[in-house]
Amino acid sequence: MTHSDSSIACESARLAAQLARRKAILRNTLLATRNGLSPNQRRDATEAIGRQLRDCSADVVATFWPIRGEPDLRATWQELARRGVTLALPLVTSTDAPLTFVAWTPGQPMTRDQFGVAIPADPVRNVTPDLILIPCLGVNAQRVRLGYGGGLYDRTLAAMPAAATLGIAFDCARVEFDAEPHDIPLQAVITESGRY
Q1: Where do the structural domains in the chain lie, given as residue ranges?
Q2: 72 vs 48, 107, 168, 180, 196, CA distance in Å?
């Protein structure tokens, strides 16, 4: 390796470390802002998001179990299931692999995975979703999602390019940040203010 190559590698590593620090600070700020929503704000925003999802026309929809103050759309999931939509929840099979989606019915017995997230206690079958609803801690104007930093959805979207993607977030998640080369923009995002 030449001195020039070494300098470039060091500069790249320094910039990557700076970006990681900025994203960590942004994640903490976004979590604090989301957790600071009042119960009434949270309820009203969640109901507005749920109303927009009720017209969902996909046959198999990958949903999410709310964690860390995410919109709690379980009532919407029940309504979709009553209409005959097959619902799925994500499973983490490995922290460096894409998510697996398993069929799920509201009311089904649940357990917790290694991260404390609720999952079906007895997953019956894997499914391939037509639509993946993805919770966003942050999302920028280019519809690039900021998650918790594990890269699970990034790997999943790269492995499932045909699936439709819809980010779910409160308005307070809309923020500007730089995308990284591995980031895949969502097709659309829904907040309480509408779809963009």
Answers
A1: 3-195
A2: 12, 15, 10, 29, 20
CATH number of 3-195: 3.40.50.10420
The strand pairing partners of 174, in sequence order, are: 139
pTM as predicted: 0.88
CB-hemisphere CA count at 13 Å for 43? Answer: 3
- Name the token pair of 52: 């927009």
pLDDT tens-place string over residues 47-91: 999 999 998 889 999 999 999 999 999 999 999 999 999 999 999
**Region class of 149: left (phi > 0), else alpha (psi between -120 and 50), else beta:** left
